[in-house]
UniProtKB/TrEMBL annotation:
Similarity comment: family membership: Belongs to the bacterial solute-binding protein 5 family.
Signal sequence range: 1-29
Solute-binding protein family domain location: 74-432
Primary site of residence: periplasm
Gene3D superfamilies reported in the protein's UniProt record: Dipeptide-binding Protein, Domain 1 (3.90.76.10), Dipeptide-binding Protein, Domain 3 (3.10.105.10), Periplasmic binding protein-like II (3.40.190.10)
Gene Ontology BP term (one): peptide transport
GO cellular component terms, semicolon-separated: ATP-binding cassette (ABC) transporter complex; outer membrane-bounded periplasmic space
Species this protein is from: Phyllobacterium endophyticum
UniProt protein name: ABC transporter substrate-binding protein
Length: 516
């Protein structure tokens, strides 16, 4: 127990003694929580940032229009009811009764309209504007917000559950200086950039999120986020009791797993996916059989259990588990199964032998866990007569480099790895529709299927997404590897109970209590 927590308990005991009562449960549960992070937010305005570190913070302050359960199903949020018109161009949201912003102002349909209007206003320069879809206008009819689109956009409902779609109260942007005012579980208190961010529990909070059990005010009174860039220093703060939760390194997480004094949390519902892709315009990777052989050589179990310390899972689909329509068993029937002998036979038939190996680049970015995964992958490829030279860059420069590389039609072929995350399979559109993410877009057939899935809903949309995944995998344009596969890990002392990581690595503190 830290001195800070000890003082709280002693104060509570003295107060109870003064009134001749025992220590009540409500007093014992009330507490402060300190979280150590490697990187600070760059903004608390969800319309001005797209970094996960920032959106993790805004998600604590701002609620979402809808929420999502662990099976991908939609549930109420600020909207108690929602519907889509038959032509898929009008979305209606009935805003719940009695919703209050942190400053006491009412959150109603007019407030929701103002928030959407700001998100799509070109003057806002919202980096996530495209994710809101082709919105042409908004209107209010009583308690109902109506959103009009130029064409059907089926990912819209899922998007409105995500951390990129926090609903800001209009008082936040009523003046030139943005103030983070929402309806969420925590209120903004103070922020010293690159040092400390403090939030306070919203006493009037009513929970909608199905991932949260607590129906009202968070048990934690105050949340303090401290920026400690060095991993060793963050771990020291956890072990000393200065911090209750920290972002550990992958290596430290492996050590903590077997220590009963700590708990480790992996982002099981992150919507994050690790994929391998190819220079499919460059010979011999213009041949789907050669690409398939590369996939058959990849020992995904080793990547999960050795490189990522068993904290992630292998994945079969181009879309992450737990999202709409994802069917891991079905995807397994389309993808390349681990078969190094079969892969070697394909390469030898194509003329690549131990004496005359296929020479390629294995292009990667520098992240813990990923580095060892690529080393194992290099060995996997060597076993099938593929000589892979690992070429690494920092994350930002990696994607800049791939933007150029993916235009090439000649030169040395390459395999490269990347990650993607979201709350809806529509990120397939972002990746594969021409020009595609870093110019990895494919062809007219894929473009058409990706457009079609946006115009469908329910089972029809799920079937179209499966068609897209089947095409990607049977033609071996991608090899799904792992999920989550990021180092979005958290560790806490064993006394922390109720902490969860939600979709897109949201931090859920509503249920958190501290055992004394």
């Amino acid at each position: 127990m830290t001195k800070h927590h000890l003082r709280k308990v002693v104060s509570a005991l003295l107060a109870a003694a003064a009134f001749g009562t025992g220590l009540s449960l409500s007093v014992a549960a009330a507490t402060d929580l300190t979280v150590a992070r490697a990187v600070d937010a760059d903004s608390l305005d969800p319309d001005k940032t797209s970094t996960t570190q920032s959106l993790q913070m805004t998600n604590l302050i701002f609620d979402t229009m809808l929420t999502m359960d662990k099976d991908g199903s939609l549930h109420p949020g600020l909207a108690s009811e929602w519907s889509m018109s038959e032509d898929g161009k009008t979305y209606s949201f009935t805003i719940g009764d009695g919703l209050k912003c942190h400053d006491g102002s009412t959150f109603d349909a007019a407030a929701a309209k103002a928030r959407v209007d700001r998100a799509i206003d070109p003057a806002t320069i919202n980096p996530d504007r495209s994710l809101w879809g082709p919105i042409t206008g908004t209107s209010v009819e009583g308690k109902v917000l109506k959103v009009s689109l130029s064409e059907p956009y089926s990912p819209f409902f899922s998007f409105l559950t995500g951390i990129q779609a926090g609903f800001i109260c209009p008082s936040s942007f009523a003046t030139a200086d943005f103030r983070p005012i929402g309806t969420g579980p925590f209120k903004f208190v103070s922020w010293t950039r690159n040092d400390t961010l403090q939030l306070q529990a919203n006493a009037d909070y009513k929970n909608f999120n199905p991932l949260v059990e607590n129906p009202g005010k968070p048990h934690v009174d105050k949340l303090t986020f401290k920026v400690i860039p060095e991993a060793v220093a963050r771990m020291a703060s956890l072990r000393s009791g200065e911090a209750d939760l920290v972002e550990p390194s992958l290596e430290e997480t492996a050590e903590l797993k077997s220590d009963g004094a700590f708990k480790v949390y992996a982002a099981e519902l992150s919507g994050q996916q690790v994929l391998a892709a190819f220079s499919w315009k460059v010979k011999p990777f213009d041949n789907p059989e050669i690409r398939k052989a590369i996939g058959m050589a990849m020992n995904r179990d080793a990547y999960a259990n050795i490189a990522f310390e068993g904290l992630v899972h292998t994945s079969n689909c181009p879309v992450a588990p737990n999202l709409f329509s994802t069917d891991e068993e079905l995807c397994a029937t389309w993808g390349a199964k681990y078969d190094p002998d079969g892969a070697k036979a394909i390469l030898e038939k194509a003329g690549y032998t131990a004496d005359e190996p296929l020479k390629i680049k294995l292009v990667a970015h520098k992240l813990s866990g990923w580095d060892q995964m690529h080393q194992i992958m290099q060995q996997d490829l060597a076993a099938i007569n593929v000589q892979a030279e690992i070429e690494t860059r920092e994350v930002a420069s990696h994607f800049d480099h791939m933007t150029s590389e993916n235009k090439r039609t000649d030169g040395m072929p390459y395999v490269w790895t990347m990650g993607m995350s979201g709350v809806d399979p529509d990120y397939l559109n972002f990746l594969w529709k021409r020009p595609g993410f870093v110019n990895m877009g494919l062809n007219e057939q894929v473009d058409t299927m990706l457009d079609e899935q946006r115009r469908l809903s329910g089972d029809a949309r799920a079937a179209k997404i499966h068609d897209i995944e089947k095409y990607l995998m049977e033609n071996a344009y991608t090899v799904p590897l792992l999920s989550p596969g990021w180092n979005w890990l958290m560790a806490s002392s064993a006394k922390v109970e109720g902490f969860k990581l939600g979709f897109m690595v949201s931090l859920l503190f509503n249920d958190v209590t501290l055992k004394q």
